Amino acid sequence: MNATFVNLIYLVSAVLFILGIKGLSKPKTAVRGNLLSATGMLLAVIVTLLDKSIVGYSWIIAGVLLGSVIGATMAIKVKMTSMPQMVALLNGFGGGASLAIALAEYSGKAGSVPEVMSALAGKVGANPFGSGPEGFIAILSIGLTVVIGAVTLTGSLVAFGKLQELIKKDRGLPGGPIGNGILLLAALASVMTLCADPSQTSMIVLATAIALLLGLSLVMPIGGADMPVVIALLNSYSGIAAALAGFILGNTVLIVAGSLVGTSGLILTKIMCVAMNRSLANVLFGKMAAGGESISADEVYEGKVKSCGAEEASMMLESAKRVVIVPGFGMAMAQAQHAVRELADVMEARGTDVEFGIHPVAGRMPGHMNVLLAEAEVPYDKLVEMDRINPTFEDTDVAIVIGANDVCNPMARESEGSPIYGMPILNVDKAKTVIVIKRSLSPGFAGLPNPLFAMDHTYMVYGDGKKAVIDITAALDQA
Amino acid sequence: MEILVLLLALFVLSLFLGVELITKVPPTLHTPLMSGTNAISGITLVGALLAAGSDASSSLVNFLGFLAVTLATLNVVGGYLVTNRMLAMFKRK
Q1: What pLDDT score was predicted for residue A293?
Q2: How many CB atoms lie within 10 A of CB A459?
């Protein structure tokens, strides 16, 4: 197959990827965008299969079959509430693929001339990856791909373990960020040694091992509610690893696609950090600051928290003209999204205006709440982002908070010195009445009491999210 | 060297293009964006195919290639299917 033709087809694929992402700018065009992107992928794969350097197809067929069966099964079976785990796994596989390609490329070239290599080791021009700066860049790309790919692989597996609640402890290296820094330097040092003398196979093995360990130790100390940042960041790594693999192979479509994915992950990471008012370094290495004077839960709650049952809650909703529902991770945990949609339907049938207020970090990954509510067939124009819903709380009769905590804690707005001070929140407390559906008064991830629960116009409905919502719906339906 | 510079230019320009494209995606679609871009990063399949099918002196290369093909295919197939599943939910009204 003519190289020019192959590259032209790769160009077509790259354009289809770009159009695919462009399609995601509107829910209406998104499905078509995804199909365009998949078509681009198919084209790139077909034209690659015709490459004359491919002599055997048995390994390829085995890999494609195995990957397709597992991938399709996962995609069809996964529950929408488990989407963060799925994306974490896919990130990890992407990193693992880049790692394997880099290792294959290394052993393919370095292994082809072992005796010559050892004889010429250290001398200029002994680089089997090419001479001069090009050879240097080739081996450097391999080294860096190995490191990023390996970190993405194990980091994502740990993230998956945490999201699936297989790993419950948030414990890292004894040295914390310093330990991770040492590992990173050690990995880069092995890559540099490899670049100086590409024949040292032990160095690439060492770099792989250290980077695999680094992925573990980076993600192990990070808690569940910080997972949106971690997943977005690992998403970005998997893209960067693909782009670097593109430099190894001199392949244009890998570079374009990889950098698109890399920026996507980085932008999402930034959005998540801004929504938590924390720097990336703070999320990755720091615990939440134990700010100023700590306020005990008793001080905030004592004697001030009112609770009510489903009947009373439904009476508050009966006369409401406008209701805003604020979902959090608790809604996903309780699988309550369908029940919530039914409640919204009943209220709308009574002439109430219902909208959903979505905080960017609600849930365990960017957009998690939107996907859940879309699954429950809530129309997407009812899902309103934070900046647009916030000014409307003052005209809202009832705000229903279900399974959310820190994202509507007024301390973030008012109490200077609080660890979450400055984090943008949903101004739920500005609504005329607030109903909070929650199991107990236990704190959210930030470990802080929430003064919202103790406000005069707040009523707690204790219990399982799904059951509480169903009870309220039933009571409202009879009213 | 010229080729390298061209690849680098492509890389840098793609980063800028990425910023322009991604900032236009509404927060509602951020989860499908992640799974969709994940599928796109499965483009490493192209490199994996070349390694798995190459006429290598050691079978280690082919085996690593096989691993890469499996993982990248998982990414592509799983990623596109699950993205399509999610987007289809957003489409109906």
Answers
A1: 47
A2: 20
**Residue of A398, A410, A411, A468 lying closest to A439 (CA atoms):** A468
Residue of B nearest to A379 (CA): B93
Both structure tokens of B65: 């290639």
Q: How far apart are CA A152 and CA A369, in angstroms?
A: 25
Mean pLDDT of A361-386: 91
Number of other residues whose CB lies within 10 A of the CB of residue A415: 18
pLDDT band at residue A118 using 50, 70 and 90 as cut-offs = very low
- Let me know if A406 is a catalytic residue: yes
CA-closest candidate to residue A249, choices A53, A459, A474: A53
E strands of A377-442, at which residues? Answer: 383-385, 398-402, 433-438
A23 touches chain B (CB under 8 A): no
Which residues does chain A have within 8 Å of residue B73's beta carbon, measured at their own beta carbons?
Answer: 63-64, 66-68, 71
More confident residue, A299 or A469: A469
| Res B78 pLDDT > 90 | yes
Distance CA A414, CA A416 (A): 6
pTM of the model: 0.88
Q: What 8-state DSSP symbol labels residue A326?
A: E
- How much is the pLDDT for A292? 43
Q: E-assigned strands of A120-272? A: none
